[in-house]
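Hello Y.,

Per our agreement to keep a running log of every chain we model this quarter, I'm adding this entry. I've kept the format consistent with earlier entries: sequence first, then predicted structure.
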Amino acid sequence: MRHKGIDQTFTHLQTSAEEDQEWEYSRARDMAILGLWDEYTLSAQRLCERMATVTRQIRPSEYETFPTQFEWLEQRETDLIIDGIWSADLHGDHCLFVNIGEHHPEWHTSIEAYICDTQVIDEGFFLQYLNTSPKARTYASSFRNNGYATMCELLDRYVREGKLERRPFGFKRTNA
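Predicted structure for the entry above:
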């Protein structure tokens, strides 16, 4: 009987050590994914600013945000190319940017930006980014099976940990 208790304790210690190793890996993965999150929001901001400049419209950063008013968005440009490498598909309060620069390191990368606040990302848009960005190739496999649900679980965990906060149109990074 005593031998069985020792075996159970040993099994528990083994499981704890494996969980610690997995936790370390997860923490490294989470740091990388949050780094990609930051890169996404920075790219979205730059692309929206460039789009405003190219189309000679007011910049999103200068616009007083009203949730239902996007009158400054003249959506006449349907085949807009920014800097020769990004196609821009403006639709409502979002714009889908896709890198079309065949020899550019970000080729095929997809960034869907919420124009009034480029710091807010929808979970589906971020999943699409991870699946299309060459920089995220290592982490895209984590979302291959049941990707959207896995992304939602991950972002919910980040909210619980204080790394993200929920916004009406997605999630936004906190200072934590």
